[in-house]
């Protein structure tokens, strides 16, 4: 298969042709500020942690090709830790589970006393 010449419009990143907008104005080039990165670690057990194996992935800005940051690359070991943390959080008697039940129980009791049907959507709206 023959390669395209670099001078063809399909192979160039920007076109030199100026196509007017619907209102007849010339298009303007917009330059965005570089993105800011708040966190680049894994969120496991309610805290940000590095990957177990310490591997990282580069995040590339698609418009410029520049590296924005490096983020932790999760492996099976990281997933196992996250699953164990989630199981502890949802276990009966855990602090999170007890808190969730304590917040929801009065509402559910009220709905049952009033005879109103309970749905997750009705809880979210109150």
Task: Explain what the structure shows.
The protein is an alpha+beta fold and 126 residues long. A two-stranded antiparallel sheet has the order 1-2. It starts with 41 loop residues before the first strand and ends with a helix. The chain is flat. The chain has three helices and four strands; from the N terminus they run ββββααα.
**N-C termini distance:** 63 Å
Give the C-alpha Rg: 26 Å
- Overall morphology: flat
Sequence of strands across the biggest β-sheet:
1-2
**How many runs of DSSP E, i.e. beta strands?**
4
Listing every helix as H and every strand as E from the N terminus to the C terminus, the arrangement reads: EEEEHHH
Q: Overall mean pLDDT score? A: 74
Structural class: alpha+beta
Uncertain parts: 1-13
Beta-strand percent range? 5-15%
Question: How is the secondary structure organized here?
Answer:
Elements: E1 42-44, E2 47-49, E3 56-60, E4 67-72, H1 76-90, H2 95-114, H3 120-125
Antiparallel strand pairs: 1-2, 3-4
Brief description of this entry?
The protein is of the alpha+beta class. It contains 3 helices and 4 strands; from the N terminus they run ββββααα.
Considering the chains and any ligands shown, give keywords for the structure.
two-stranded antiparallel sheet; 4 strands; 13% strand; 126 residues; disordered N terminus; alpha+beta
């Amino acid at each position: 298969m023959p390669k395209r010449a670099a001078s063809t419009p399909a192979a160039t990143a920007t076109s030199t042709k100026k196509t007017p907008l619907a209102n007849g104005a010339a298009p303007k080039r917009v330059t965005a500020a570089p993105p800011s990165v708040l966190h680049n670690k894994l969120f496991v057990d309610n805290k940000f942690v590095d990957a177990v194996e310490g591997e990282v992935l580069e995040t590339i800005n698609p418009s410029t090709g520049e590296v924005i940051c490096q983020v932790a690359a999760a492996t099976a070991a990281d997933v196992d830790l996250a699953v164990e943390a989630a199981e502890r959080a949802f276990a009966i008697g855990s602090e999170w589970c007890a808190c969730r039940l304590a917040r929801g129980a009065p509402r559910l009791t009220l709905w049952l006393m009033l005879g109103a049907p309970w749905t997750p959507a009705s809880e979210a709206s109150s």
